[in-house]
Amino acid sequence: MLEKMSDFFENRLEGYDRHMRTDVDDEGQFYAFTASLLPMEKGTRVLDLGCGTGLELEDYFALNPDAKITGIDLCRPMLDALAKKFPEKEIRLVCASYFDEPIEQNFFDAAVSVESLHHFTKEQKIPLYKKLCDGLKQGGYFILTDYFADIQEREDYFQRELIRLKQEQGIADNEFYHYDTPLTVENETDALLRAGFARVEIMNRWDTTYTLRATKA
Ligand SMILES: C[S@@+](CC[C@H](N)C(=O)[O-])C[C@H]1O[C@@H](n2cnc3c(N)ncnc32)[C@H](O)[C@@H]1O
């Protein structure tokens, strides 16, 4: 049975950090790598899409303790766990869908998202990435660490399966339910370029998890 996105993560909150740091590709090494690509200036502003319990932020604060973070996530208990970890830090947490939440224009030095965006289609992502690109300062960039489909056929299969499961369970098409529908790296790159980013680079890879950097001109 598909679970609502927020319920899915709430139901797995216990043990979530350990699972992500030990069971996912290369024991979560991608968190430290992702953090190392974010800006190191004091007071730099970073937006985190789908920040969850803040695993990438643990690594980032270790490198840049004075970063100012805005985190968006639709699961309140995940955000509560994050807030408990960093009582002293300058963090603004927004409990909402990043598809709906407005992003202030030319405001952020960088943005990051780890293991959150593989639940959505290219069509859903292009307007989100456009809003995100507009929210970055000139020369700002977006670090996307996520898992990807290795071939087009697998991407297509997961998209078809999600539609089938939603129909089977009578779920309205516009509701977010948890089901992984990773794009290929090629399609993700195309979505970022179509949204207005000037270039997209592959920065690293661990099995099916990649880190991409999309830079605003
Ligand atoms: C696998 S967790 C990743 C959390 C964190 N970035 C990490 O790597 O540990 C995915 C997160 O994305 C959030 N999420 C999924 N869809 C979202 C949406 N449309 N808007 C905001 N958050 C979303 C979920 O609530 C969950 O906390």
Radius of gyration equals 16 Å
Instruction: For the largest sheet, list the strands in their spatial order.
Output: 3-2-1-4-5-7-6
* Nearest-integer average pLDDT: 96
Helix percent band: 25-40%
Shape: globular
H/E series: HHHEHEHEEHEHHEE
The CATH architecture would be 3-Layer(aba) Sandwich
Q: Please tell me the total number of domains.
A: 1
- CATH fold descriptor: Rossmann fold
- The overall strand count is 7
Can you identify the CATH class? Alpha Beta
Could you give a short account of the major beta sheet? 7 strands, mixed
Query: What is the rounded distance between the termini?
Result: 43 Å
Task: Give unreliable regions as ranges.
Answer: none
Amount of beta strand = 15-25%
CATH superfamily: Vaccinia Virus protein VP39
Descriptive key words:
globular, 217 residues, alpha/beta, Rossmann fold, binds S-adenosylmethionine, 7-stranded mixed sheet
Commentary on this structure:
This protein has 217 residues and is of the alpha/beta class. It has one domain (5-215): Vaccinia Virus protein VP39 (Rossmann fold), CATH 3.40.50. The chain contains 8 helices and 7 strands, in the order αααβαβαββαβααββ. The protein has helices spanning 5-11, 16-22, 29-36, 55-63, 76-85, 122-135, 152-168, 185-194; strands spanning 45-49, 68-73, 91-95, 108-114, 136-147, 199-206, 209-215. A 7-stranded mixed beta sheet has the order 3-2-1-4-5-7-6, sandwiched between helices. Helix 4 (55-63) links the parallel strand 1 (45-49) and strand 2. It is globular. 35% of the residues are buried. The model has no long low-confidence stretch (mean pLDDT 96). The site of S-adenosylmethionine has 23 residues, from helix 1, helix 4 and strand 2.
